[in-house]
Design a protein that fits this description.
Rossmann fold
Amino acid sequence: MSAVFTVSGVTRRFESAARTTLALDDIDLEVQDGEFLVLLGPSGCGKSTLLELLAGLQCPDAGRVAFGGETVEAPRPDVGVVFQDAALYPWRTVLRNVALPLEIAGVPRREREGRARRQLERVGLGDFVESYPGELSGGMRQRAGIARALTQEPDVLLMDEPFGALDHLTRVQLQEDLLELWSEQRRTVVFVTHDVGEAVYLADRIVVLSARPGRIRAELPVRAARPRLHGDPELIALESEVYRILREFEDPLDDPEYFL
């Protein structure tokens, strides 16, 4: 496999009137073509920051993020992003919400609505195209958010804890649905979570970040065969290994580099 993203020596700081906070420190990472990579770590470790650097929504203070060898300096149409909140406009129908990126890009109405309908069918919302977000459950809104990211037919899908606010049963169902979608075309996926069970179920490879400042502490391949079953002993054993690694993290407040 070839590298889609290459992250080299990346550091990210955030400035405020009171202090400078070091969020990510000297990150080196490659994301391979077709890989399902999961970024895992405790809350506040910089997972979402790293994802936004890949998406071109932030720029590093030091180091370089490259996509296909080109420096990432702004969002790209071939990289789709799904956020924690589906962020659907309540006054637009599901169809018009999902078609919005294509509308902004100037795609003619007939084409953009056709593409949006196809993606809504793929995520199980074909019967809800004329519904409004307030008429949907939380899981359905997240499906719509995934469909919206897919309308531009991106090569890469970046997902920032998209199932974090859902109940357990809905979350498990959407995990299974996501893997089914991924297996159809094997798009590259980078998925952020702090849920260990979710990470081992979804990933080809898990990158474990330390508490802030975020540093890569481990990279764990997940060799369990697909399709996977929740509760599989092999996955449970890997969960135990991940928890062991997480317990080794120092308290961030003991790290002199937490605040600079």
